[in-house]
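A sample copied in:

***
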Amino acid sequence: MIPANPGTAGLLRGLGRTDILALTLNNVIGAGVFTLPAALAAGAGNWSLGVLLATLALVSLIALCTVEVASRYDVTGGPMVYAAAAFGPLAGFVVGWLMYLSRLAAFGAIAAIMLDYGAGLWPPLSATAVRTLIITVFIASAAAINLRGVVAGALATNLLTAVKLLPLALLASAAVWSLGWTPGPSLPPPDDLGGAVLIAFFACMGFEHAAVVAGEARNPRRDLPVGILGGIAGVGALYTLLMVLCFRTVPDLAHARRPLADAAAALVGPHGATAVSLTAVLSCAGSLTGWMIVVPRVLYALGAQSDLPYVFARVDRIPRTPGVAIVGTAMVVWALTVSGTFVYLATFSAVARLLMYGSTCAALIVLRRRDGPAPIPIPLGWLWSGLAVVCSAIALGTTTGVAVRDVSIAIGLGCVVRAASRLAQ
């Protein structure tokens, strides 16, 4: 069992329902949406929309399980806290360790995508020195904002979320108008359904970040369900409409490099493509700003539970933020982004997230049997939990042996670090 309130003392509970909803939308709708239609068309062909809807259904099941389990706790950590409570401290550490590493990798990958889209708008950004300077300023700014306090970080995230969602929502609304158009050329038959499922799953991940910062939410048991489920509903509607629009407007969707930009160009010309490219930059920037709130809190929680050096659990006195965890995370993501070593970590990101989600769904059953009903019980929760675990296992079966190897290496190294940290304390 974990302590009743691990590592939450000292943190400011400043996040409201709107902040949690914005955090969910911001962390799910990142870079993936700008490549999802073409990637799905290439792998799933004329089954693309069905694959997307099936993936959204799986993610909704996992989100429901997360809501019930999260209602039992009001502390920082999210899935790692649930795994520790249900399966023991070592399981909690493994989930938290993989959460942290996979998010570091994804941060570097999305930062690279942001710079690539930016280079299309401003060619000098293609130069290595300019890219390094820009990403240094961006990461330092995001860290500085979060060092001022969780409320300041949430305000920046809310603003960037609104800025990036508005053009995407306008583009998605065009899908309704396009329903009267003549359909575009038919898509090819499915070629790689397993890969398409993983691509869709990648684009739908990130809703659990709201649960990670529960220790800084004013009323997590009331606001987390609305934030997580409302965010998933918004993501599902947006993704579905954007897919429909691309089917209607992009002639060779399976080979489109910038499908949403191509769709915008078909609607309003070159200026539409430029606007979508700018939106892609803002979307990536918004996601990265949101992650600078969440990712350091995972490191903080690991330190608070003595799984890593306790210095990472240090809370600065005045802003009441985990300053060491924020600065340390900023330094690591900077190094990964400018060096390109994030590619190695990205190979096990899918496996890590599926294992994490699976652990949360399985925890629902264990906690129900041991501790009784949750404050927010999900009807037929045991059924949805079991179904989500099975579907996650099937999705894991589509991954490569290299990814499994990388996860095994990461777990082994993490356990060594954990043992050393515990011996030193």
In short: Residues 1-9 have pLDDT under 50 and may be disordered. The radius of gyration is 21 Å.
